[in-house]
């Protein structure tokens, strides 16, 4: 009997002093059309912290196959079955927009790598639980429109993916470009599964635009570029920041020569001036990433920065609450909202209760494809 009592006491003491475990859910598009984003994001998890605040961290990873319905199923599974404390992902805008109500209902933070402004704006009770590491569409388009003005662009034709990402970028571009004297001549749309956009390109070239703006996610953005080259278009071509990867360069090949992309400067870290505050962090991560996985990716940098923001938030939350509780999840949310001047590989992040995308125009740049590589525009 005495031995049984001692054994029970030992188990009780072990349970009392055994540190809690933090559980992080991850939902990425590692297959499907968004895989050029999701694969490097998954690779970046190799640099995830294993312990935070003296507690082990366990990661539960699901692939949503670039499908918004599956993404929602995965998020519900992470929250309801895996009992995660917070979530990284989804990778793309459409999937992120589809899970906002669910994470708000369960009061669970997500740090998305989707870029659309509407993911975090306008701020309301639902979006209080949603953060993201890519810049808003507004910021990407500000950098691009500024570049167009300097290059003398007066007219633009748009070909956009027929989804919320295409819609959001088209809206933001028109809002910013019009007042600066840049006229949008036409907007053509295409779908993710299309194998040809020749009819759309023929229509948009009728107005002889100074530039064409292609709005699509990842390698899907190469299709209109091929069609423009076939028609010997000589104007300027711009893409969104979602294409800043070696995979896009590989798929697009010579057709991409001369194209412009507004993005964060991680993929050209070596070309940054030494005065750039993100250069040291960007170079360090880029070298470590390439040693493990090959050419770096803008999307790997976004998850790497999310991991850093996550670590700081978890350390702060652990001081006031225990993992696995609503109080811990609320403390995580509050900690991220109060993150200021976090130096990542892609940008300097500052969040607030009304601003859940931490990148400003000051962290952006414009790249040009030159000889099959990314070149920083001066």
SSE map:
Layout: H1 2-17, E1 22-28, H2 35-44, E2 51-52, E3 55-63, H3 68-80, E4 86-88, H4 93-97, H5 100-105, E5 109-112, E6 130-132, H6 137-150, E7 155-161, H7 164-177, E8 183-190, H8 198-205, E9 211-215, H9 222-230, E10 236-239, H10 246-252, E11 260-263, H11 279-293, H12 298-317, H13 326-337, E12 342-343, E13 348-349, E14 365-370, E15 373-376
Parallel strand pairs: 1-3, 1-4, 4-5, 5-6, 7-8, 7-9, 9-10
Antiparallel strand pairs: 2-3, 11-14, 12-13, 14-15
Helix pairs in contact: 2-12, 6-7, 12-13
Task: List its traits.
15 strands, 378 residues, Rossmann fold, alpha/beta, globular, 13 helices, four-stranded parallel beta sheet
Helix content: 25-40%
- Overall strand count: 15
Structural class: alpha/beta
Strand portion, in percent?
A: 15-25%
Low-confidence stretches: 4-18
Write out the strand line-up for the largest beta sheet, numbering strands in chain order: 2-3-1-4-5-6
Second CATH tier, the architecture of the largest domain: 3-Layer(aba) Sandwich
Instruction: Round the Cα radius of gyration to an integer and report it.
Output: 22 Å
Q: Would you tell me which CATH topology of the largest domain applies? A: Rossmann fold
CATH class of the largest domain: Alpha Beta
N-to-C series of helices and strands: HEHEEHEHHEEHEHEHEHEHEHHHEEEE
Mean pLDDT, all residues: 93
- Overall body shape: globular
Largest sheet, in brief, is: 6 strands, mixed
> What is the overall number of helices?
13
Count of the domains: 2
Oligomer: single chain
| CATH homologous superfamily assignment of the largest domain | Response regulator
Amino-to-carboxy terminus distance: 80 Å
